[in-house]
Every structure is written in C-alpha cells, then in structure tokens.
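Worked example

This section walks through a single chain of length 350. The input is the sequence exactly as stored; nothing has been trimmed or padded.
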Amino acid sequence: MTLKALCDHITNPKEAVLSKDHKLGPRLVCPEYSKSVQEVKTYPLLHQDRLFALCWNIDTHMNLYATMYPSPEDFCYHYNFSSGEKTQLHTHDYIELAYVVSGEFRQKILGKDIVFQEGELCLIDKNCLHQDYLVNQTATILFLGIANDMFAEIMDGNITAQKIVMFLQPALLQQKDLQQYLHFRPNDGAKKEIENCLCMLLKELYDNNVGSRYICKGLLMRTFHILGSMYEFSLSKEQRKTMNWLVFEEVSDYIRQHYASITIQDLVDNFHFQEDYFNRLIKNKTGLTYSAYVQQFRLNEAERLLTSSNKSVETIAETIGYHNKGYFYKIFQERFGMTPSQYRKKENFT
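Given that input, the structure is written out below as tokens.
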C-alpha cells in the first residue's frame, strides 16, 4: 500500500466512525477564533507514546477529514470549511514534522506565507508561531508529533546527517526562546525513499501492536537520515550564520582528530556539503585555505612531538601525515625558520 492509499484509508469516513463532535476534534482542526490569541498545543498522548501521526485529507468540496494514531479508537473527524479559512495561531510544546503527501499545503509561519509542494516537508520547533490555511483544492498532509525526549535521542543517535544534527540540536532543543522552522525539498529519488519509510511508520502507529514504539523510533531515525542525505533545506540569514559557526566547529574538530590522513572528500562524505563549501567556510573563519588549515594542525603536532618525545624526525613526519621527508622539512622551515632537528635542539636547550 502506498502512503497516499494508507492516508485515504484511515481518513475515509466509510472506514471509521465519522464524528463531528469527537473530543479530539479541536486538537485535529481548530479553526481561527481570534486574531490575538496564541494557543499552545501540548503533547496529546501519554509519556510512553512519544510519537503520533495526524492525517488531513481535503477534497474540492471543502471537506476536511482528519484522524490521529495511536488513538484509543478508530475515528474520522469531519470539518466543512470556507476556502481561505485558517486554523488558530498556535505553537507546540513538541516538534512537528509535516509531509505533503499530495497537493500543496500553505502555512503562515512567523508571519510569512509559505507554500509547501508535494514531497516537501516542514520541521517546526516547539516555540514557532504558525497557522494553517484551508483552501478549496485536494490535498493530503501527514503531520508527525515528536516528543522532545524522543527527538533528542534521535539527534544524539548519529543516524542523521551531520548538517541537520549540528543545526537542530542547539537550535531546536537547547535555545527554548528561539522560534524557527526548516523547509526540506527533495533531491532526485528522495520522494520514493521517504514515502516508503513514512508509510511503514504510519502503519505501525495505526496497528499499534506490541513493540511498535521501538519500530517507530527506528523508522523515525531512518526518516531523518533520508532528510539529511537526500533533501536540501534553506535557512534565513541569521540561521545561516548560526549554521556556519556550528559547521565550522564540527569540521575543525573533525580535522583535529583526523589531520594525519584527512582529505577534503572525507569532509564531503561526513558532512554532506560540496567541496567548495568547506574551502569558503574555512577561509571565512580563519583566513586560511583548507590545505593551509590542515597543515597548521600537522605542524602544531610536529612541534609538540619534537619537544615531548624521542621519535625521529622521519617518524614524526610519517605520524602527522607527510610521507615526503623533503616536503616536511621545507614547510617546517617556512613556518619556524629552522629545520626540525634545529628546533628540537633549541627547545631542549632552553
């Protein structure tokens, strides 16, 4: 079964209990009742259920059918809206990931109107003020509500691509007053991959069998891995500044740990940015080229080994990644104004 077919099934009024007065109705669709009130939606499930799915199915007759899983009972909430109607302005105390299964989806986020196309996702942090537009066209939207502790575990699990981890960990979890969102757009082949994963995830939440919560966590980890490796996301100017510093700190730490054998392709493979990005980033933060920056780490280590060990100069050169002794001598003299042996004698004498 495809993701669209599964969404159609669980929001089909013929397949569930259609209720206009279901107690969860206001949670699923809360029409705008005030332009000044800002609702805070709390996590709706028990602590042990750390993930839920909310599905909207909208038709051209301005009917919205909605349901949520896991749930104590199967139900389908029906709301007949006026085109252009909005939901109440709100925030969450949990993380929300919205996926456009079909059609398009329009939201106002932090005062800005944004249209999400089929196959795109929006990740909204727990303080980000937003509301949803209800328009007269068919669309299917899948929302995932992720409890904060589960999100933290996923971010800490080293499953997702580094560029998402570096941005989301500090931005979405630690800085509680920071309001923001990420808009993900798929690369080639991404839509099929993520829909297969989301379909399995939704089915697990729908069936809610023994062990489902563990399977769901794994599938959610896989979802974020796909987002990190097969999707692109755009950032505001301020977010880019934050992102660049976070990336630089992570890249710098990685180079420090792997300076002896590192190549720029290693950075591409680990951080999922193009090669030119690392050159620009390092130049911007240090004034050095990538090669000069790596060389700085290597020569710093050479200096330390010359003064703190009895290793030969040849061994030290090999240890820090230089297999050409003549080249090592050349760059060492350029930096310190003397050969490695002269430097060792001078430092030991003093």
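What to look for: The chain has two domains: 3-234, 236-350.
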